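Quick one, T. Sequence first:
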Amino acid sequence: MAGLWQQLSSLRQGPALALLHFLCLLYPPSGARSWDLKTSPSSPEGFEVVRGNFSLTFLRVGYHKIAEIPAGARNIKIHETVKSRNYLALQTQTGIYIINGNWVIDRPGIFTAVGTQLTYRRPNEIRSRKGESITAPGPLTEDLHVYLIYQQPGPSVYYEYSMPSQNMHTTPEPDTSSHILPMGENVHQRDISNNDIIREKPHPNLVSSDPTSKADPQPTYIWKKRGHTECSATCGTGRHQVLWECVENDSQVSVPADFCDPGHEPLNLEEECISQPCPAYWDVGEWSECSRRCGPGTQHRQVICRQVTQVHADGTETLVIVEQDLCGSSDRPVTKSNCQLKICSQWEIRSEWSPCSVPCGLGQRSREVVCVSNQGDVEDDEECNVNLKPDTLQNCDMGTCARSWFTSLWSQRCSAECGRGNRTRTAVCLMDHVTDLPLSICEGEHPPEVKFCDSGPCQNRLEWYTGPWSQCSAECGNGTQTRSVACLFNNDGRMAVVDQLKCSGLPQPITAQTCSLKPCGVQWYVTEWSACSRSCNGGYRVREVRCLTDNIAPSDRCDPSLTPESREECNKQPCVAEIDPLCNDQYHNCLVVVQARLCVYPYYRSICCTSCSQRSKTYPNHIRR
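Structure tokens:
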């Protein structure tokens, strides 16, 4: 029966198609009781499209085979027409699962198999109304079996694919020269206005009523509205298309579509169709991750009451959120569920305590503690509760250790080049085993760490003497400190200060060095004062003030009460005019000349010499012409 089913699925018209539909009713594939298969020549030249729908209200939970796509198929599209908690699955003809096999749900992605790439999509956002889909460009190298993993009532799956025409069984087109008009012709569907389009064309089977007439009237053919397609929505607001057919104008008898003018064939008009309101439904989101990686936990999901208000021509829907009472509060899906990914791992002590790390005194001992899964495998410590981990180290006391003095070797050079100096060494109290930590008390006296040495008498020697360093010049940040140096004449312990030039042959010690007691943090920095704006009678000068850190970065953490002044008065002394016997005011009201700033002109400067001179000394930046 399966072989017959595959052969009949390639037939597209005539008695074979009727037989196919009859067999569909008697033997629905894979337990499906609502299944439709159609072929259409609407694919690219040389290919025909096979389409099918699978829908059934109730099935048993599990895998159900809904279609077989033969080798060579192209442009494969499989998708749920209604979003559900069901899943699509694919299997090769040899029984190997490609997607969602053996109750393991794969992540959406691209899978390479049977000679093509299969793209698996599963929208998981609660806002999406689209179901699962699988697409592939093909061609397939072997047969592909499509399964539905049934979990929720009311599944609906649509699928289609293209097959080469030479692989499809076709029925010859009817002979239009026959005396019997062909029946079952396809009606061309295009949108147009309701006005009929008339085209005059002789009917090949029409016999003239008057044989003696030389010019019988020719029959006319028009496009007539035949009906419309089903509404795109079973509830809410949808759309349907107006259908047209070609008829003989007088008799209104249907004739083949090519009798009417194809250039005036009406286009398929789309009209709105309103059905009863759609019932509200619970839109259930995906479960969140389990709250615990191991052991009992909880997971949550979002549940929203939605309603379809309009179904568009492209299959998309307009959804709105409505009150939960419309969905039925008693049937509301649960939003919280218990979960457990795995049994938690446990700590396991693998060894006894090791010997103490020291032969005497305080030491440590250790043991091995590992994290073990419920199957006995060693895992990372993060898989177990770190707070419950048994101790792996423990202190141990092996009793009092003997203590001894250890000394380094004496230094080889005497501290003085002549006269009396000393040599040094270091003495520490240590235990008599591997530890090197210094102790407070050892038996016996502390060994000497300094002894005297004599490098011979100092006779007629010149040497530099350095005094102590002075205090740092800055309380914080970089400063300087200095010291005094002197040239000494040493004659067997008798010293005298001589001119520093006599020690010029010896390396002179430095007398200054930088110092830093502590970082300043933030502090105020200022620039030098600018020049005074006036030379007399009071002016002002300015400087820039900034708050900077130790690395000279701008800051706002300086003390505002200690902000240095950025402006101050200067040259407050009165202006004294220089007396020039040849310079005097020849005009009785030269003050007006000064106020009008006419002193820039030589004429006014000459007749008001005294006033203009005082003006220029008061404002030295005054521009003259």
